[in-house]
Specification:
158 residues; alpha+beta; Serine Protease, Human Cytomegalovirus Protease, Chain A; 7-stranded mixed sheet; globular
Length: 158
């Protein structure tokens, strides 16, 4: 599935305004192995130890403001880091839903902390290990172009 198709498919799960008390869930790929993200690439397994130890980063909108929910699962697989989360019933989370419905919120972004880096001769850095992630944000333009929201759902029976 191409990136625009993935984004459109994810958006079809939500095109509604949440009502008070409705469950709001989000899922997606927070980081992908082997994808050029500006001037660095995340190496396969970079999150393995972090996930094994357990991590619960904050869920933010565009790396700022109050938390909009919490991540239920943070898992590492052969493709990268996958997360699922529950959005809280607060104004900032409702703003995130609206931005998603408007097509302005399509991806996920994280800031690795305590990272171990290697360098290639061409100047591109390789992220080989991540020791901490303080937050994973819902964003409009992820640094990793393949770090996309894959599910965004609203409903009482989630």
């Amino acid at each position: 599935m191409t990136e625009p198709t993935q984004r459109a498919a994810a958006r079809t799960h939500s095109l509604a305004r949440p009502r008070q008390g409705q469950a709001m869930m989000v899922a997606g790929r927070a980081s992908n192995y082997g994808v050029l993200c500006g001037r660095y690439i995340v190496a396969a397994g970079a999150f393995a130890d972090l996930v094994r130890r357990g991590t619960r980063p904050k869920m933010l909108l565009n790396h700022e403001g109050p938390e909009i929910g919490h991540w239920l699962t943070v898992s590492d697989d052969e493709r990268g880091l996958f997360v699922t989360g529950w959005l809280w019933d607060n104004p900032r989370a409702v703003e995130a839903i609206q931005l998603f419905n408007d097509g302005c919120l399509t991806g996920l972004s994280l800031g690795p902390k305590g990272a171990v880096w290697d360098a290639m001769r061409c100047g591109i850095r390789i992220l080989t290990e991540v020791n901490r992630i303080d937050e994973i944000s819902l964003v409009g333009e992820p640094g990793d172009p393949a770090a996309l929201i894959t599910e965004f759902a609203i409903g009482a029976g989630l």
